[in-house]
Amino acid sequence: MRLYLVSPNYRQRDGTLLKSTQYWTGAPARPTLKALPPPPWQVEMVDELLGEVDPDRPCDVGGITAMGPQIARAYELADAFLARGIRVIGLVTLGLHGQDEPVLQRTADFFEQTKVLLARFFTPAPYPGTEFHHRLAEEGRIIDDDWSHHDYASLVVEPRELSPTQLREGFAEAHRRFYSLKLIARRMWPPPPRNRLRHLGCLVANLKSHFFMRRNPMAWGAIS
Fold first, then answer.
1. Quick one: pLDDT at residue 3?
2. Which of 63, 85, 71 is nearest to 6 (CA)?
């Protein structure tokens, strides 16, 4: 199995991708994920700020992580993977600075129009001791400082462009749309020519999410 991990960049006003020889983020998620697969897996990781992402790179699984201004570019790369028949799982954090109610709508529209296999939506989780937590605390935007609720599903941050109610309702609607039987059928048919057992597992996961949401319409966080 070949895994291609990508951190996309964002386009500048002239349409070009920002490039830099300095790296200032240092997020540990992708290096940690790269180290986890057993030896038969071949894992390649690229950060578009420093290197070039090859949308035609031979791979079995593509992983894309993005937030804020990177999201538009992440959608471009997801489209490229999908066009090649590589299935994509979407993990999206919403409720961050710069994201308003139309962003929730556009995100739901994107997942409805593409064949993203599974989707999970997350809320910001500013862990105590991090710069993110310190900044939000200074702004008075942490509305729940219980560590047990920092699970990427509970509402612990006051959104800047949304009310907590708008964020919760937007997430619930995104889940309801994505896991409707109509969209599940559109995503899962026709089955791929290979990895059909894995495809069947994803179908079961989709159906379980659908029936869970029918029984618990506002419990979107529980399936995140």
1. 85
2. 63
Confidence band of 180 (pLDDT split at 50, 70, 90): very high
Q: Find out whether 123 and 94 touch, Cβ atoms under 8 Å.
A: yes
Reported as a single tens digit per residue, the pLDDT across 73-87 is: 888 888 888 888 777
Q: Verify cis geometry, omega within 30 degrees of 0, for the bond prior to 190.
A: yes
Q: Degrees (nearest 5) of the Cα angle 104, 71, 211?
A: 45
Nearest to 1 by CA among 36, 52, 49: 36
**Contact residues for 151 (Cβ-Cβ < 8 A; gap 6+):** 125, 221, 224
What residue segments make up the domains of the chain, in order of their start?
1-86, 95-224
DSSP category for residue 3: E
Contact 180, 149 (CB under 8 A): no
In angstroms, the CA 95 to CA 52 distance is 29
Average pLDDT, integer, range 117-131: 82
* Contacts (Cβ under 8 Å, ≥6 apart) of 61: 1, 2, 3, 4, 86
Quickly state the pLDDT bin for 223 (edges 50, 70, 90).
low
The whole-angstrom separation of Cα 200 and Cα 198 is: 5
pTM: 0.70
* Distance in angstroms (rounded) separating the CA atoms of residues 66 and 10: 10
Average pLDDT over residues 105-124: 82
**CA–CA gap between residue 88 and residue 80 (Å, rounded):** 10
